[in-house]
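Saturday, quiet lab. Running sequence design on the structure tokens for the scaffold JK sent over.
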């Protein structure tokens, strides 16, 4: 998969100092997981499921989940399973990674047994409500399916269960999950956060004027997940951001979260107004907070959210050169940024620099003076 390939060549040349690379699933789990970007969930009950996956792929989505769990009513489950198998059999050679969110381990077995052409159209499975007690049976089925089809199918556990949410069981559960995932490290692509279920534990539904980090009981859980599972010492995993639930207009209670200056500078004031009226300013804010909290990519439920996530995923010219400067020496110390606006500490900032270079491979590096506004505008005009 390669990000932004749906943009025309002239636009890519204008925007990018370094083009995104073509990422293969054999390129290492950290790089592939970083390259997931905005992972779009699509209900398995859609009658035009194959056409929808192909359409979203053409629009720049590179990570898609066919959802058999919360998006499917119980009485529609059998048809949804059949629809999923039909779609996977038709998707061989897709330019996006296609996963299935399965309700049970048995569903993983039955889906894989029903594939006509091996697992060519399937990248792996998303495991909902993952716990240390129940997770191994899902992971074992994914390993068995990988062996049966002669390929490696990925697993993406979703942390959203009461065992993780409740404070009295959280740390012990996360320690057990860390140990379990460590035993299956080869197939674990990323750890996903299920904030909607977490909110549901407390009867909360956050308003679109707020980010998930404003919901303190959930923000505490996210912090603990990153602490236990997002360590950059070889024991951690890529952790993806929770879903942004909104995509419709409403009367605003609070001021917009987007400054006007970047849009004025790029003569995109009207475009800023469109983002605010579609509530995408709060999404952009949440993506920025995800990154600040050690989280990469995001679950999305509407295709209009994908460009916003991907525009903020591209590495800026300044970030990239700071990262190269930091990685150019292993002696430690401090030096001024080439942009003359900050100090780069070669020791503490080293892991950040490694992650930034990894992200640059997946999403490219923008030209000097190019901002997320330029890239988001180009994606919106596509």
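Result came back. Writing it out in full:
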């Amino acid at each position: 998969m390669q990000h932004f390939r749906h943009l025309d060549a002239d636009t890519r040349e204008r925007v990018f100092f370094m083009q995104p690379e073509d990422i293969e699933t054999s390129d290492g789990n950290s790089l592939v997981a970083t390259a997931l970007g905005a992972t779009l969930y699509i209900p398995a009950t859609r009658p035009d499921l194959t056409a929808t996956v192909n359409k979203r792929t053409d629009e720049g989505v590179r990570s898609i989940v066919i959802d058999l769990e919360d998006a499917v009513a119980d009485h529609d489950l059998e048809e949804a399973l059949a629809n999923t198998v039909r779609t996977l059999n038709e998707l061989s050679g897709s330019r996006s990674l296609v996963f299935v969110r399965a309700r049970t381990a048995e569903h993983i077995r039955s889906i894989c047994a029903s594939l006509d052409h091996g697992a060519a159209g399937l990248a792996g499975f998303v495991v909902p409500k993952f716990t240390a007690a129940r997770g191994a049976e899902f992971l074992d089925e994914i390993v068995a399916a990988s062996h049966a089809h002669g390929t490696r199918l990925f697993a993406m556990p979703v942390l959203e269960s009461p065992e993780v949410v409740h404070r009295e069981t959280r740390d012990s559960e996360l320690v057990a999950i860390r140990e379990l995932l460590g035993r299956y490290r080869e197939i674990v692509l990323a750890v996903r956060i299920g904030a909607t279920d977490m909110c549901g534990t407390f009867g909360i539904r956050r308003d679109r004027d707020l980010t998930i980090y404003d919901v303190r009981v959930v923000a505490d859980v996210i912090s603990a997940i990153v602490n236990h599972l997002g360590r950059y010492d070889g024991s951690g995993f890529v952790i993806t951001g929770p879903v942004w639930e909104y995509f419709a207009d409403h009367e605003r209670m609070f001021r917009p979260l987007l400054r006007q200056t970047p849009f004025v500078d790029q003569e995109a004031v009207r475009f800023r107004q469109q983002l605010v009226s579609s509530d995408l300013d709060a999404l952009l804010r949440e993506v920025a907070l995800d990154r600040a909290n050690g989280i990469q990519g995001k679950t999305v439920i509407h295709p209009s959210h994908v460009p916003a996530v991907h525009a903020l995923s591209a590495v800026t010219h300044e970030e990239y050169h700071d990262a190269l400067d930091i990685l150019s020496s292993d002696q430690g110390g401090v030096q001024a940024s080439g942009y003359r606006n900050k100090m780069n500490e070669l020791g503490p900032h080293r892991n950040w620099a490694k992650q930034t270079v990894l992200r640059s491979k997946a999403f490219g590096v923008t030209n000097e003076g190019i901002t997320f506004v330029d890239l988001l505008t180009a994606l919106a005009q596509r």
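Notes for JK: Residues 64 and 98 are 5 Å apart (CA to CA). The first strand starts at residue 16 and ends at 18. Ask whether to fix the surface positions before the next round.
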